[in-house]
Amino acid sequence: EAGVAQSPRYKIIEKRQSVAFWCNPISGHATLYWYQQILGQGPKLLIQFQNNGVVDDSQLPKDRFSAERLKGVDSTLKIQPAKLEDSAVYLCASSPDRGEQYFGPGTRLTVT
Amino acid sequence: AQSVTQLGSHVSVSEGALVLLRCNYSSSVPPYLFWYVQYPNQGLQLLLKYTSAATLVKGINGFEAEFKKSETSFHLTKPSAHMSDAAEYFCAVSDRRGYSTLTFGKGTMLLVSP
């Protein structure tokens, strides 16, 4: 069974630029999560989707971050415009309904 | 609200020595508890989980953890460290509403010396 796929793996941008990350969850997984992991900290949930609906986006900085899940499968996370403090690893995870989460390898974003 | 505290950002052991990584949780409802491992430039891999069955939970790679409600703890142990165990370990908590949102601790980096 293929795991959670993410791209790109690494991205370097300048502040005020825009960036987008892509996630393809494990086939059949209803729930998809985006986490932000800042260096030296544990992952923090940004947004949770159940199929293509948002379950929890309480910690998503909505003035600059947006996310969507197309047809309840793939998802994109966008930052516009980026700030220095957005430098982090962005992890995508998926789970079957009421199941444990499986994580992708992450995208490491550096904002200069 | 839920939270996790991991004592020690770094733990150093010698190969063959006991590994003990500490995790204390706070939860207003009965929790599910998890330990994840993260190798450099990789995502998180589930080591083990407590979901209200046996309080002593065995996971992969020889790790185990014991849920102690009276101490609100879920410490991770391994009798004999191996060089390949060097990685970052995260404790996480969720409530029991069907594996809902995970709240992670800050992580403990395990260093293993020859």
In brief:
With 112 residues, chain A is mostly beta strands.
Notes on the protein architecture:
The complex is a heterodimer of chains A (112) and B (114). With 112 residues, chain A is mainly beta. Chain A contains no helices and eleven strands. Chain A has strands spanning 5-7, 10-13, 19-24, 31-37, 44-50, 53-56, 65-69, 75-79, 88-95, 102-103, 107-111. Chain B is mainly β. In chain B, strands 2, 4, 5, 9, 10 and 11 form a six-stranded mixed beta sheet that branches. The termini of chain B are far apart. The chains are: A mainly beta (112), B mainly beta (114). The interface between A and B is medium-sized, with 23 and 21 residues.
Principal-axis shape of chain A equals globular
Q: Note the total helix count of chain A.
A: 0
Distance between the termini of chain A: 37 Å
Percent range of helical residues of chain B: under 10%
Biggest chain pair interface: A-B, 23 and 21 residues
Radius of gyration of chain A over all CA atoms, rounded: 13 Å
Number of E-type strands of chain A: 11
Helix content of chain A: under 10%
Mean pLDDT of chain A: 93
Task: Describe the secondary structure blueprint for this structure.
The complex is a heterodimer of chains A (112) and B (114).
Chain A: E1 5-7, E2 10-13, E3 19-24, E4 31-37, E5 44-50, E6 53-56, E7 65-69, E8 75-79, E9 88-95, E10 102-103, E11 107-111
Parallel strand pairs in A: 2-11
Antiparallel strand pairs in A: 1-3, 3-8, 4-5, 4-9, 5-6, 7-8, 9-10, 9-11
Chain B: E1 3-7, E2 10-14, E3 19-26, E4 31-38, E5 44-50, E6 56-58, E7 64-68, E8 73-78, E9 87-95, E10 103-104, E11 108-113
Parallel strand pairs in B: 2-11
Antiparallel strand pairs in B: 1-3, 3-8, 4-5, 4-9, 6-7, 7-8, 9-10, 9-11
